[in-house]
Write a structure and sequence with these properties.
By secondary structure, the protein is an all-alpha fold. Helix content is 86%, strand content 0%. The protein has one domain (15-56). It has helices spanning 3-17, 19-27, 31-42, 44-56. The mean pLDDT is 92.
């Protein structure tokens, strides 16, 4: 497995457990993180889907 694939897999696992952490590790602190935290606080699933979108795009 290539390093990029492995890091993506690790980020997906982190996203399942704690979506805002995965978004922070991928993009850093910014508007994307704020959006994900709001989605995650309101409902878990939208935060998870947003995190997966950010990681896999």
């Amino acid at each position: 497995m290539a390093d990029k694939e492995l890091s993506t897999l690790v980020l997906v696992i982190i996203a399942i457990l704690l979506p805002p952490l995965a978004v922070f590790l991928k993009t850093g602190a910014g508007s994307t993180l704020i959006i994900n935290i709001i989605l995650w606080i309101l409902f878990y699933i939208p935060g998870l889907l947003h995190a997966l979108y950010v990681i896999l795009k």
